[in-house]
Amino acid sequence: MAELRVPKLNSNDDVYLLVEWLAPDGADVRAGQPVAVIETSKAAEEIESDRDGVLRHLVKAGASCAPGAVIAGVGAGDAPGPVLTPLTDGPLITAPAQALMDELGIGLDQVRALAAAVIRRSDVEHLAASRTSPAPASAASSEAVPAAAGERRPLSKVQRGVGRAVQLSHSTIPAAYSVVRADVEAALDLASRLTREVRRPIGLPELCLRAAARLHERFPLMFARLAGNDTLELPDAPHIGVTVDAGEGMYMPVVRDAARRPLKDVATTLMEFRISALNGEFRDSDLAGANFTLALHHDAEVALAIPLILPGTSCALALASPAREPVFTADGDVVARRVANLGLAYDHRLINGRDAAEFLRAVKESLETPEVLAGVQNS
């Protein structure tokens, strides 16, 4: 009987959650058929059988499983199926939840009282917080009882994933940062016109993404990754991750082969990303494979932001919200123009300050003379 293993779905998580089985134990399945749903810190992904046969579950839904773990077998109908370890009475406790229970000294009887079929780490955190909260006071003495020192809340699944990426980036990447100011008046005018023409929302993010992608061949280091201490890997195409935060956590879905994508297609893709962020419907395959980051900052009060360089990439370009400012013309006149800051955080092991400045100037020039960005092919 062939083993069905959990693939490595991202670089942030050491353990995933088997949310549900899409095919029951003993079902006939086909190669390529989705049979299970695995949840990571940021998305849910369907796991497919790699062959025809009879599916035999090895892990119950709701359990934690590490990348590479065997969760099922697929074999001939007359092959002996795997034996499941019988569960004890009570809820199914995920491995992270059990580890926290052991750390805090929380017993099985206490989690049974939650009346949940599956106990996750967040359930244990809530339980621990309730144990440390004071008992409610009677009406007569409520004024004499001080309020709790502070409320404890667990981080969301998405934010825990962000935290792991941030910690790994800051501990492994020696970053530097440069910033330029770009006159984006012409770019915003073009974006407004193109929005009407293609019937898709086009703004600075779409134009900036296109500007960066078109520079892939001229500045390959910006899209490279460090393999070992003295070797570079240069990708054959720019795959640009774009930060999206709709209030439910930050995601970074990827626009693949961005230099060859029509601007209308880029606009449609970013619009779909925003909808997926609102609904939390990303798959891990949507979030994997970036070799460049475009970090968007929409708050008009944020003039400068230093983006995170994701492990496995060499730089991240930050686009701040434009602001109207006085600008000197070539004739010495002062006019009001919309200006935006462009910042580049870069891995100093691969990229030097001069390279970063030249790349930023090239992006700036593209935004200040933006008509070429409306084209389809890299030029």
TrEMBL record:
What segments bear the compositional bias annotation Low complexity?
Answer: 129-149
- State the InterPro entries in the record: 2-oxoA_DH_lipoyl-BS, 2-oxoacid_DH_actylTfrase, 2-oxoacid_DH_E2_comp, Biotin_lipoyl, CAT-like_dom_sf, Single_hybrid_motif
| Domain (Lipoyl-binding): residue spans on this chain | 4-72
The annotated region (Disordered) lies at 129-159
> Which EC numbers does the record give?
2.3.1.-
For this UniProt record, give its keywords in alphabetical order, as a comma-separated list.
Acyltransferase, Lipoyl, Transferase
What family does the database annotate? Answer: Belongs to the 2-oxoacid dehydrogenase family.
Which protein are we looking at? Answer: Dihydrolipoamide acetyltransferase component of pyruvate dehydrogenase complex
